[in-house]
């Protein structure tokens, strides 16, 4: 159960009084997630999501509020947070930072079809097109500058083969990206896996959980998506999903020549990013709560497959 701080109906009802959101009808803990406490809140006027932030850097929460406000203003399918009567979104509840969001329609797609892939590619391309002008700044917390020092913490737990794989990859990334001209920059989701989207049929109801949001290489975000959305269990790319996502994305924001050149390396680096972060959770920094960590081997498999064969050609933008 991912409710680490329980709330009473009275606490939630009092909290709602700050907003123009209606009166409490029901509140229900959400048994999902790994870091924060989440509740579905029903009022006499609407359905909402209440999040209590249990861990992480709380001083960074204003960045996420500003980013969601910005994307919501640009008509992206994101949960723009509710602001109270004084225009304030971020509050404290049960001694934890708290945000209230509209509840977006849909469910997580476990096996996305091509229409869902096109919808996701279109939305991400739209987001990246407008996010280049977002004025906020938060450095990418999981880019190469993080990978280089953090990988030392897991080497002792790896086989000799995997130690060499990780060290050789990092050396390759460092040499490549130091020589590459700067790639297009903007605000990123940072973790846009299938379970961070909601679909109502083939319609994208929302992109959610922006708590890895940051600013950095737009290509980094796109590679994360492809490594999850368009990848089989054995690490191979799914040609149809790959083409659907990237074609729709490029109709909104075509990749430039430097991004096309960097694409194979970025797919490898983002695969290693998740292999390493999951290894750290298993061996070095287990979750504060009794939750099952994600399997690191999934992204080791993807990384090895990206090394074994070149990525599929980038498709032309969708018409």
UniProtKB/TrEMBL annotation:
Q: In which pathway does it act?
A: Amino-acid biosynthesis; L-threonine biosynthesis; L-threonine from L-aspartate: step 4/5
Residues covered by the Aminoglycoside phosphotransferase domain? 27-255
Q: Which Gene3D superfamilies match?
A: 3.90.1200.10, Phosphorylase Kinase, domain 1 (3.30.200.20)
Per the UniProt record, one Pfam family is APH
Key words, A-Z = Amino-acid biosynthesis, ATP-binding, Kinase, Nucleotide-binding, Threonine biosynthesis, Transferase
Reaction catalysed by this enzyme: L-homoserine + ATP = O-phospho-L-homoserine + ADP + H(+)
Keyword Coiled coil present in the record's keywords: the answer is no
Question: Among its keywords, does the record have Transferase?
Answer: yes
Q: Which GO terms describe its biological process?
A: threonine biosynthetic process
Recall the GO molecular function terms of this protein's record.
Answer: ATP binding; homoserine kinase activity
Stated EC number for the protein is 2.7.1.39
PANTHER family in the cross-refs: AMINOGLYCOSIDE PHOSPHOTRANSFERASE DOMAIN-CONTAINING PROTEIN, AMINOGLYCOSIDE PHOSPHOTRANSFERASE DOMAIN-CONTAINING PROTEIN-RELATED
Say which family it is in.
Answer: Belongs to the pseudomonas-type ThrB family.
Q: What HAMAP family does this protein's entry cite? A: Homoser_kinase_2 (MF_00301)
- What's the protein called, per UniProt? Homoserine kinase
Species annotation:
Halomonas halmophila
């Amino acid at each position: 159960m991912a409710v680490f701080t329980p709330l009473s109906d009275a606490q939630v009802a009092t909290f709602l009084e700050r907003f123009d959101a209606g009166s409490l009808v029901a509140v229900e803990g959400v048994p999902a997630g790994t870091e924060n406490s989440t509740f579905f809140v029903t009022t006499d006027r609407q359905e909402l999501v209440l999040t209590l932030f249990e861990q992480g850097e709380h001083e960074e929460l204003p960045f996420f509020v500003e980013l969601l406000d910005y994307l919501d203003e640009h008509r992206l399918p994101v949960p723009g947070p509710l602001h109270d009567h004084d225009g304030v979104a971020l509050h404290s509840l049960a001694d934890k930072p708290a945000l209230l969001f509209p509840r977006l329609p849909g469910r997580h797609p476990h096996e996305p079809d091509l229409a869902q892939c096109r919808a996701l590619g279109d939305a991400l391309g739209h987001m990246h097109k407008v996010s280049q002008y977002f004025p906020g700044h938060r450095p990418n917390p999981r880019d190469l500058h993080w990978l280089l020092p953090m990988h030392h913490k897991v080497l002792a737990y790896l086989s000799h083969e995997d130690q060499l794989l990780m060290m050789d990859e990092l050396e390759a990334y460092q040499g490549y990206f130091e020589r590459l001209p700067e790639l297009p920059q903007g605000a990123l989701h940072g973790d846009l896996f299938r379970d961070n989207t909601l679909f109502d049929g083939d319609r994208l109801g929302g992109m959610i959980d922006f708590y890895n949001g940051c600013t950095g290489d737009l290509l980094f975000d796109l590679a994360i998506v492809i490594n999850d959305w368009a990848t089989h269990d054995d690490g191979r790319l799914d040609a149809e999903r790959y083409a659907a996502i990237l074609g729709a994305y490029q109709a909104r924001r075509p990749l430039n020549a430097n991004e096309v050149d960097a694409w194979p390396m970025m797919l490898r680096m983002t695969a290693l990013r998740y292999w390493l972060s999951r290894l750290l959770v298993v061996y070095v920094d287990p979750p504060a709560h009794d939750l099952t960590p994600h399997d690191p081997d999934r992204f080791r498999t993807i990384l090895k497959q990206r090394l074994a064969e070149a990525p599929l050609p980038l498709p032309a933008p969708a018409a």
